[in-house]
Design goal:
With 186 residues, the protein is α/β, with parallel strands linked by helices. The protein is 40% helix and 14% strand.
Length: 186
């Protein structure tokens, strides 16, 4: 099976760091060396802006197609957030809790000693071609509270860059990944 059918990087952008008080704004999934798939909350029709069950279902179904996922801080944030939100919305789906997850945060904590394990720092030191964009607080505020399309466009572009950077960072850290399991490949 080709690697692009086995591995995908993903990132989520949310309205809150806690899933029971937040919602998804955007999710990007990038199969290995393939184009980015974008899921954005304004592409889905809902009764209220606060709910996006179909988007979440679509994201989880897509993620579960890949035996190996890459997510920066995915063990502590991305996967639990998606699973908690699915539970809160009563969807009966989850990102496979036993799926294999490459988490560059855990790899960096265990094998490296940078001043920070943030994705932008790893990207800089590992000299990735793609660079992250800044997290602009105002874009999140306008997207969440004003349904501002331009602000959401910025968030989506930020998310796209994150998954591209993630793919490059994971490739450069591969020598530190002796095993990949549901604990986060540390």
């Amino acid at each position: 099976m080709p690697v692009e059918q086995l591995v995908a990087s993903f990132d989520i952008e949310t309205s809150n760091l806690k899933a029971d008080f937040g919602t998804l704004l955007a999710v990007c999934i990038k199969p290995w060396k393939q184009p980015v798939q974008v899921y954005r909350e304004d592409s889905y029709t809902r009764e209220r802006r606060s709910q996006n069950p179909q988007m979440l279902i679509d994201v989880i179904v897509e993620l579960n197609k890949y035996p190996i996922l890459i997510a920066h801080n995915g063990v502590q944030f991305d996967r639990p957030y998606l699973n908690t939100l699915a539970m809160v919305l009563g969807l009966g789906v989850e990102v496979d809790p036993k799926g294999k997850l490459i988490d560059p945060v855990l790899i960096a904590r265990r094998h490296l000693a940078f001043s920070s394990n943030r994705l932008d720092v790893l990207s800089e030191w590992l000299a990735t071609r793609t660079r992250k964009t800044l997290v602009k607080r105002e874009a999140w505020v306008r997207a969440v509270f004003d349904a501002d399309t331009q602000a959401l466009n910025y968030i989506v572009e930020h998310c796209i860059k994150d998954v591209k950077v993630l793919e490059e960072v994971a490739w450069r850290l591969r020598k530190f990944i002796p095993q990949i399991n549901h604990f986060g490949s540390f």
